[in-house]
Amino acid sequence: MISFTQLKVPALLFAFLLVATASAQPTVQWRFKIKAPIIGSPVAADGVAFFGALDSMMYAVDIQTGSLKWKLRTNGEIRSTPIVHNNQLFLAGGNGVLACIDKNSGKRLWSAVFDYNALFLAERRYDFADYYHSSPIVHNNVIYLGSGDGNMHAFKVENGELLWTFKTGDIIHNTAVVVKDKLCFGSFDGYVYALKLSDGSLAWKFKAVGQKIFPKGEINSSAAANDNTIFIGSRDFNSYAINVDGGYAIWNMTWAAWAPSYTVKDTVVYIGTSDDHVLMAVDARNGQQIWKMDTKFNIFGKCVVTPTAVYVGTIWGRLLAVDPKTGLLKWIFDTDGHTANHDNYFKKDDTYQDKVLSMAPVQWIAAEYKMGGIWSTPLVVGEKILITTAEGTLYCLNNKP
């Protein structure tokens, strides 16, 4: 089966078919607005959503009411996603400081510097399309975090004491994943690394092939993993499935564009791509395609997979809900920015207007911000879906059937 987005049908007919067949459209329960873009994803605990923004602020918002519970100023753009561990919130700031925050009060408990260069100059970015900073993860009471100076760090949860540091050849701006006894992540030097959790020493490293535009095969995608395989993409337009024990590829897939987001559920990998506007489900064991759909717009954030839907955002301000088994489109939600500005940048069939293709990178990003672009991963909390957008809004959608 294929979705209506794969059929060459007029836009008005597509809209009619969507209304006639799709699940009930979610409604906006509330909006929480700030004056800066939000790139990182929201996380939640005990009825509160937490997120950081490019205004250097960390926000805590009540999920039922949309009211602000507290906010904390840091120093530097926040392009990462915080993580909740027990009653604490860990945040990697754009000023190179890892902060431990009391999640109930917003009080800073301790801080640890992970990038001294960023203290004075802001964390290094590779280029205009290096949107994210690394986000911390916690495993067995150890925090793991990569940084713009090319280091992977391990800190104690209780006090931020540095346990070890591993140096790569370039920026680490993806989030690590733990598989078995290894910490796996990629670097802009074109390597995927697996470090031993015990001491941070190298278990193996895997080199991306590279290609003409990106000869190093720079890796800015965050890996996803199952029991023995990590899935990660490179700017060389390849997706790699790498055996965690041996560090060799069991399959790879070449795209017409970057493959920046990976989400694993059971034996299926859901891959969202940017330039070719594709969402695909593949068999994790062999890379064989299960289904593929044209999303119309670029994807950078990861999917969220539930038994009934795959939710994924696009950087032009549209959230998609897709059937996880068939790839059929269930519904779409457009941000306020998308609704207000679509016709300034797109034709009625969602293809770019001619002026867009000639815009400079700074103009392109400004347009995506204006459109309410979604670089984040949606968050499902019961019957609610939370999304952060580059127009500076946290949306709470009511997704009751």
Structural class: mainly beta
Please bin the fraction of helical residues.
under 10%
User: pLDDT below 50 for ≥5 consecutive residues: which ranges?
Assistant: 1-21
Distance between the first and last residues' Cα: 23 Å
Mean pLDDT: 93
Radius of gyration: 20 Å
**What form results from the Cα inertia axes?**
globular
Q: Work out the number of β strands.
A: 32
Tell me about the largest β-sheet: 4 strands, antiparallel
Strand arrangement within the widest β-sheet reads 1-32-31-30
User: Which percent band covers the strand fraction?
Assistant: 35-45%
Helix tally equals 5
Describe the structure.
This protein is mainly beta and 401 residues long. It is 10% helix and 40% strand. A 4-stranded antiparallel β-sheet has the order 1-32-31-30, with no helix packed on it. The longest helix has 11 residues, at 11-21. The radius of gyration is 20 Å and the shape is globular. Residues 1-21 have low confidence and may be disordered.
List its salient traits.
mainly beta; four-stranded antiparallel sheet; 5 helices; single chain; disordered N terminus; 401 residues; 32 strands
Short description:
The protein is mainly beta and 401 residues long.
SSE layout and pairing:
Elements: H1 11-21, E1 27-33, E2 43-45, E3 48-52, E4 57-62, E5 68-73, E6 83-85, E7 88-92, E8 97-102, E9 108-113, H2 118-121, E10 137-139, E11 142-146, E12 151-156, E13 162-167, E14 177-179, E15 182-186, E16 191-196, E17 202-207, E18 224-225, E19 229-233, E20 238-243, E21 249-254, E22 261-265, E23 268-272, E24 278-283, E25 289-294, E26 304-305, E27 310-313, E28 318-322, E29 329-334, H3 336-345, H4 354-357, H5 361-370, E30 379-381, E31 384-388, E32 393-398
